[in-house]
Amino acid sequence: MFTTLFYIILLIIIADFVLERYLEWLNIRESGKELPDLLKGIFDEEKYAKQQAYLRANHRFGLWSSGFNLLILMLMLLLSGFALVNGFTASLAPHPVWQALVFFGILMLAGGLLNLPFSVYDTFVIEQKFGFNLTTPLTFFLDLVKSVLLTALLGGGLLALIIWIYGKTGSWFWLLAWGIVTLVSVFMAMFYSNLIVPLFNRQTPLPEGELRTAIREFADKVGFKLDNIFVINGSKRSTKGNAYFTGLGPKKRIVLYDTLIEELTVEELVAVLAHEIGHYKKKHVLLALVLGVLQTGFLLFLFSVFVQSASLSAALGVNEPNFHIGMVAFGMLYSPVSLAAGLLVNHISRRNEYKADQFAAENFEPEALASALKKLSVQNLSNMTPHPLYVFFHYSHPPLLQRLEKLKNKE
User: Fold this and answer.
1) Which residues are catalytic?
2) Which pTM was predicted?
3) N or C: more exposed end of the chain, with fewer CB within 10 A?
């Protein structure tokens, strides 16, 4: 017998799928339009046709993969799949912590195996066809194994600790759990590049030369102490270029992809670094961390209210409430709240990108940053004309046109 809460969960899942497909339809409909004057000349005719084909290929792939995952989730709900897995884990592991670990282990393993063909197709067909893929089958396999092991060790360990705390403290577990997750978040923010990244990529200090000298001179000019400048071998997997800022305090570092260094001039690279330094100088890195911590606290508090709800477990066909079933059902019900939080975070992120661009323009050269952004968009076959509503829901960075317009005003 399906409960009212079951139908609410079903409605949320279907509504989310329909919304995503509608946004993608708007986005694909917007493509192919005549480029605004600021964007003309960035793509030649052949390259622009390739960008449009890349966008459509990813759109079709998204339809198939998301439709498949919706089908699996609907079958799990309609056929009481979560209840079956829960019953199986209860027979294997009587302790609540081990039940939860085995339960999520089964779900994640099954989900990973079912989605593996899509990952293979995305990497070795779509990305290969459009000239991005440099991943070998061995690298792909090793990445998969490492990711599974890291998720099991770090994610499983954290989950086990939280469930153990829940068993000892009851409904107040969320406060201790929030504290632990916050400590883990701060630790990862500081040491992720030192501990996790080397498992997948090689990072080497940027050698002495024109680029390092130019970066150091700019950093000194704006009063930014920067000793850690690294180059990462992004070309191990893709031709796409990128740069990012990571770490806090003395552990902060800037990481440049080798593909980015190959594509941009020294002035353009310094402009990109100026943008990243702008994020730190304007405390955007700290703000993102604080927002993440607050969002996690709110999520844990809400979950603590519903975790023992018999109605929540019954919605997935389980009569006796437990932590992991409550977690799955709550995750589905929380989806609209998560969507709203994501909209706010993306809005703040886009605003901060403008501010970082402004910092780079005021302290370096707006023309160099504009040129770098154009080259990166061409290199990555970025969508030049995304639909505004799609941007509102999904973009953490403003579209290229809007960034160029603001930079032009700074020239």
Assistant:
1) 276, 357
2) 0.89
3) N
